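User: Please write out a complete single-protein record containing the residue sequence and its fold in token form, without commentary.

AI:
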Amino acid sequence: MTLSARNEPGLQNPASNTNLITHLADLEALYGGAVEASLVKETDRVVPVYRAFIEAAPFATLATSGPEGLDCSPRGDGPGFVRVADDKTLLLPDRRGNNRIDSLRNILHDPRVALLFLIPGIGETLRVNGRAAISTDPQLLASFAVAEKPPKTVLVIAVETVFFQCSRAIVRSQLWKPETQVARESLPSAGEMLAALSKNQLGGTEYDRALPERVSKTLY
């Protein structure tokens, strides 16, 4: 069975659906004005209270835009892996991965980036928007080395806006509650997904068996 959005109520014929919002005025009329707190919390630099969040965060998502579309990439390491160089500059090492370099390709065409920082157990998240450049400065790379292995590049992000997001999304999702964790075996494994998408040319049981050791040896 093929899944389709057209099976959802109200989406059988989107082009003629009169319930779709297509004008900004209609959108603003529906939602009303932004509450004062949501505007006051936005800054154009990393103030001390926001720096504390960045230095405690072991995980962030990096959003970019390029000629082939959008990309949102997970980034993670020890708390504070994104370094606050000063109140207008963040440094993000590009650790080992699959070499798709989707984010880096996009940044070469469009330097605008967005970061979303998450901290385990904390409801609030932190959002940063800015512009990134890709650095290969030897001293900068060396400063991010782990086990004598530096990243290939470091993103130098010029901060434009910073603000925290309230905890509603985390509360609704119950993201940090241990009892909501999903058993890994209840979903397709990496090997199973690769096998399905490659018509059994890649992946499979052997891929899954070797994956934990391969990941541990290629973290940096």
